[in-house]
Amino acid sequence: MVSAKPETLMTPQAYCEIALSMPEAEQSSHFDVTDFRIRNKIFATLRAADSRAVIKLTPADQKLLIETSSTAFSPIKGSWGLKGWTLVHLDRADADVVRHAIAIAWRTVAPLTVVKRHAL
């Protein structure tokens, strides 16, 4: 299990910067939540007021991420979580692990033609 050191913990601002660093990523919002999209498909969200972040993974990727970083990630409750939507506990998450997880989320929703053009 990965445990974050205080100097490597994720902040809402850093989370936004990482999400927007993904190829063709755009920032938008829905239901008063900031979201990050590729070709209008959401791969990550952030509610900065309470440091609540969410990423879209496959159920298999979600399981692996939670097994290796259970303090930083957990499934969203209900059917959304069963589909791979994963809560990121920013106050317990290592920045490098979150960067990797956001890249996985981006690849999960990006069109294959876009994924093939970028080595993430």
How do the strands and helices of this protein lay out in sequence?
Blueprint: H1 12-20, E1 25-30, E2 33-38, E3 41-47, E4 52-56, H2 59-68, E5 73-75, H3 79-82, E6 85-89, H4 95-109, H5 112-117
Antiparallel strand pairs: 1-2, 2-3, 3-4, 4-6, 5-6
Can you describe what's shown?
A hairpin with a 2-residue loop joins strand 1 (about 25-30) and strand 2 (about 35-40). About 35% of the residues lie in helices and about 25% in strands. It has a six-stranded antiparallel sheet with strand order 1-2-3-4-6-5. Helix 1 (about 10-20) crosses helix 4. It has one domain: Alpha-Beta Complex (Aspartate Aminotransferase, domain 1), CATH 3.90.1150.30. The chain has helices at about 10-20, 60-70, 80, 95-110, 110-115, and strands at about 25-30, 35-40, 40-45, 50-55, 75, 85-90. The model has no long low-confidence stretch (mean pLDDT about 90). The chain is built from five helices and six strands. By secondary structure, it is of the alpha+beta class. Keywords: DNA-binding. InterPro entries: YjbR-like_sf, YjbR/MT2646/Rv2570-like. One of its GO terms (molecular function) is DNA binding. It comes from Mesorhizobium denitrificans. This is MmcQ/YjbR family DNA-binding protein.
